[in-house]
Amino acid sequence: MSKIQNTEGSLSQINRYAMHYGLILGAFWVFRYLFLVVAEIGVSDRFKFLFYLMNIITLLLMYILYYKYKSSDTEKPKGGIYCVLFMIMMCFYASFLEGAIIYAHYKFIDPAYFSNLVSITISGVDSMPKTGLISEESYAQTRDTMVAIYSSKITYIVFEFIKNIFLGLFLGVILNFVVSIKKN
């Protein structure tokens, strides 16, 4: 019984830290995304360069937040599973803020941006060669389904959520091997 209560306490502590640090990370992702918005409006391509440069800062920020979480209570060292779970949850919570700014960008700031973004993908889907293995009707139905999936704004935002969660998983596993806390 004590072990179950200890696990629940650990999970609530992970959730609390993940929400707090996820808010910080999400605010940075919103700030980073604003550089892309400014670049797409046509001010300067330097803003797009800064947007991509901030991906490196994102990795550094995630390292710092991971280290802060791992070293938050040196009396009770956190295991690798808890640290990976923290990274996944932190990226999940941060994705809400990023998803909101992406939605605002597509809905209010520059509605034509998403159409331009997916037009390349849709033209690629339209130019896929038809193989002799399926009928013409099946090919047309598959093409229409793919176009519907790729042209959905909500699907794009959900894929961004999934991408961020996998980023948290990957970095959590990598940082678990890199960061070690020494007891004093």
Sum up the structure in keywords.
184 residues; mainly alpha; 6 helices
Task: Give the helix tally.
Answer: 6
What is the domain tally? Answer: 1
Instruction: Give the CA-based shape.
Output: globular
Distance between the termini: 31 Å
Q: Would you list the SSEs in sequence order as H and E? A: HHHHHH
Would you spell out the secondary-structure blueprint of this structure?
Blueprint: H1 2-41, H2 46-70, H3 80-109, H4 111-126, H5 136-150, H6 153-178
Summarize the structure.
The protein is mainly alpha-helical. It contains 6 helices and no strands.
Written description of the protein model:
The structure is a single chain. The chain has helices at 2-41, 46-70, 80-109, 111-126, 136-150, 153-178. The protein is mostly helical and 184 residues long. It has one domain (2-178). The longest helix is centred in the first third of the chain and has 40 residues, at 2-41. The chain is globular, with a radius of gyration of 21 Å. The two termini are 31 Å apart.
